[in-house]
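Pasting two entries for a bug report.
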Amino acid sequence: MDETTVRDLEAAAFRRLVSHLRSRQDVQNIDLMIQAGFCRNCLADWLSEAAQDAGVSLDREGARAHVYGEPYADWKARQPEATPEQIAAFKATQTSHS
């Protein structure tokens, strides 16, 4: 495959991932971190870094708004606090990767 096709396919996969995550607001970021080692905020950070590398102005909050489909503060306000069990599971993943 040529570079343009690869880029277009990767962009389509990214858009589908973002759409999927927007539709699954029941899945908390901490659950994603426990299971996959990344969350929506990580994805937004990667988007912001890619924009910076390309010379495009997109700060962290703008990238988060893109990934979440709304201001991050609005999304976060609807999310429950992480449970002690979730926090313990997350911490366990951190020590197992050290």
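Entry 2 (this is the one that rendered wrong in the viewer):
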Amino acid sequence: MISSLAYEDTFERAKAIGARGFVDKPFHQEQLLKVFGEALS
């Protein structure tokens, strides 16, 4: 999940509904690749 709402409750809610990773905006390519890698492993 990618969102500009980078709050702890947003992270928890995203995970509760099935998100396997969370990236807050603005993001860098390295951060996005890391989260994708973790979600796919």
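Dev reply: Rendering is fixed now. As a check, the viewer should reflect this: The two ends are 16 Å apart (CA to CA).
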